[in-house]
Design goal:
The chain is of the alpha/beta class. Helices cover 39% and strands 15% of the residues. It binds farnesyl diphosphate (FPP). The site of farnesyl diphosphate has 20 residues, from α1, α2, β2 and α3.
Amino acid sequence: MLDNDYKIPSHVAIILDGNGRWATKRGLKRSMGHKEGFETLKNISNYIFSKGVKILSVFAFSTENFKRDKEEVDYLMNLFIKNFKKLINKKNDAKIVFSGRRDNLSKEILDAIEETEEKTKNNKSHIFNICFNYGGRADIIDATKKIVDDCQKGKLDINNLTEDVYTQYLYNGIPDIDLLIRTSGEVRISNFMLYQAAYAEMYFPSTLFPDFSNDDFDLALDVYNKRNRRFGGINYEKKNN
Ligand code: FPP
């Protein structure tokens, strides 16, 4: 394959899975897997942006994850509070946004979210979308409520509601995913970005997230490049990625 034919997906999304198993395999507490997972995320996000990916979405915490043991949830919340802003990286110029419901979150979490968003709001090169207290169906329902509200207020004519307009009502208006990766060998999308995943190429490496390396991402890109994206057509690529 010629180098200039090599396609870089515009939007990559990752379901960060396998932290608990990574720790358990080593006789460690599950929380140690989350700690290591954070280090991996810091590294891999920079690498992914350096490859020219415009948007990176990650599933950091689902609404359902609140059902875990209190000890694990508390550990994760503290990890998020301390580390969200450590994802800010001057070199990659990424705007960090958070997608998900903001209700029922502690003040400390809300402050950490706000500070991180505020500090990066003028960054232009990339978008780092952190899905937190996130559910794909909730994303669609919340968008629908905003659409109904705008229609009632006369701000939107229902006849002008296209798929692209609908996208703008989703959390942060995040567009379609090109490449969706779930680590750890699980083969499902678990309520992650359901609307935006409609035509995503999916890749399910068995690597547990804390072990997911730059080389693993390069392999994902190679797999993506071998796929023939048809978008329901015969042999048609909708866009050049
Ligand atoms: C799923 O693995 C992972 C999570 C629920 C948490 C993911 C969080 C991180 C990687 C840290 C990110 C940090 C920031 C600041 C965004 P699991 O616990 O379900 O693993 P298992 O399936 O092996 O049990």
